[in-house]
Amino acid sequence: MTEPKKTFLITNASTDDAFEQARDDCVLRAALRAGLGYPYECNSGGCGSCKFTLVSGDVEVLWKDAPARRERDAENNRYLGCQTRALSDLTVEARIVPKFVPKHLPAVRRARLDAVTDLTSDIREFSFASDAPAAFLPGQYAILLLGEEPTRRCYSMSNVPNEQGLWLFQIKRVADGVASDQLFSLEPGDEISFDGPYGMAYVRPETPRDVLCIAGGSGLSPMVSIARSVGLDEAQGSKRLYFFYGGRTAADICGENYLTDLPGFGERITYHPVVSEPDDAKSTGWSGATGFVHEEADRELGDALKELEIYFAGPPPMAAAVQKMLMGREVPFGQLHFDRFF
User: Is the model's pLDDT at 237 over the cut of 80?
Assistant: First the structure.
């Protein structure tokens, strides 16, 4: 009996590049593992950035109802790279863009949960240890693989790259969330697999501009990673960093403790918490800013926003509101950095 192939060769007719995909992988991530600049954003079927045309070969669609795959895509043999798996050698037509070439090749690895820290009633920081150095760019994310299926969810790292192999994630528990329920039930010593790093909203240390981070909910995680990177990098020691964090109630506000130990906190590094529910602010005696976090950033910084390098992360409605506000201020799009999640 002939053994089934363990890998399939995928040839890109648009560029003559070729790469291998393991049986349990997908087209997009296999291309990135091979070091190719395959465009993507959400990595989860929602944005459509990773579409390709199938010229020949057999594929499996992993999520038939993915929001970004339209009816006419099926008619034109168009597929989402993140939701398509090769079942044979393929020929495809796909864009390859240099800026998407990964700085660190993504890989699947095992990690052990070392510690958990509660940040609020529903946000917890998970500290995992792996055998190899933690190589990623501050602001990037990994796909955690949970359970036997497995369930796949994207979560951003909150620490900075390190030789010790530590990977920290600040994760918000979602009501009836399959993935977050599994995570919040883990005990120190438990092991999981994760795949990464991924993401294009990583810190750009080469730019001379001061930095603005805007976060809401568990969007705190990548912004903390970026703030730590900027704050601890001596080459960036003269930059100002504005950190705005929005929570629904005063009890949801967190994150300042990750900045207070950075050189220059209170002077060149400032923390701006915002509560969006005025009634809660009144009942709890909250004396800080109220409203939406993007509105507070706009009030505080105004036209100076155009001169900043801006990173933001949070729930999709918040991210959309931040982007709309910044475009209204005519901030050049090249100065905005965010990963779209759905």
Answer: no
**Sequential DSSP letters for 279-313:** HHHHHHT--SEES-HHHHHHHHHGGGGGGSEEEEE
Ramachandran area for residue 176 (φ above 0: left; ψ -120 to 50: alpha; else beta)? left
Integer CA distances (angstroms), 152 to 25, 83, 119, 301, in order: 12, 12, 23, 38
Reported as a single tens digit per residue, the pLDDT across 302-317 is: 999 999 999 999 998 9
Closest alpha carbon to 88 in 11, 180, 28: 11
Domains and CATH numbers, the chain: 7-100 (3.10.20.30), 107-198 (2.40.30.10), 211-337 (3.40.50.80)
Peptide bond into 106 cis (omega under 30): no
Q: Render pLDDT for 118-154 as a digit per residue (tens, 0 to 9).
A: 999 999 999 999 999 999 999 999 999 998 888 999 9
| Rounded Cα gap, residues 254 and 27, in angstroms | 38
The pLDDT value recorded for residue 2 is 58
